[in-house]
Amino acid sequence: xxxxxxxxxxxxxxxxxxxxxxxxxxxxxxxxxxxxxxxxxxxxxxxxxxxxxxxxxxxxxxxxxxxxxxxxxxxxxxxxxxxxxxxxxxxxxxxxxxxxxxxxxxxxxxxxxxxxxxxxxxxxxxxxxxxxxxxxxxxxxxxxxxxxxxxxxxxxxxxxxxxxxxxxxxxxxxxxxxxxxxxxxxxxxxxxxxxxxxxxxxxxxxxxxxxxx
Length: 213
Description:
Layout: H1 3-9, H2 15-37, H3 44-51, H4 65-90, H5 96-109, H6 116-125, H7 132-159, H8 169-186, H9 192-210
Helix pairs in contact: 2-3, 2-6, 4-5, 4-7, 5-8, 7-8, 8-9
GO molecular function: DNA-binding transcription factor activity; transcription cis-regulatory region binding
Keywords: DNA-binding, Transcription, Transcription regulation
DNA-binding region: 43-62
């Protein structure tokens, strides 16, 4: 095949493709800078410079820095939901104890995803002062989606006889959140090996408290 034929076979990049690529690049850069410096200390000028475009060009993709931040927040929330769904699907045929342990581990290690993990922790624990209401709305919507999954999960555990009969569904869900929130917070203080060691202790106590018999 001649060089000309090879060139002809390569799909051309349309303006729409280029805009989508720029939008994705802005999100990746914004995620990195927000995670590293926080919302207040990150400017659109910095994001534009890192993307190799002029600041006004950002407005072709996002109305404001707040709009970019909130979209990244929704993305992070969606990714946490996707992680939960993936864990439940992957371990669907495993005993309930293994399914629960895997789910807790996956949620806890979400914080270690490069850039996104730190961003998620910042968004969840320290939302920007000017965006508290919007951030809380995203968090509440995310929790509602997680609640539905956890409710179905704990009810399946009861049907399988894996959980003690007196364990209330809402108590299980509350304890699950406390463990995840606590482990996410501890990632600010401990390196991963220490967090994994602490997880083993947390898991031992939690499973002893919820298991049947």
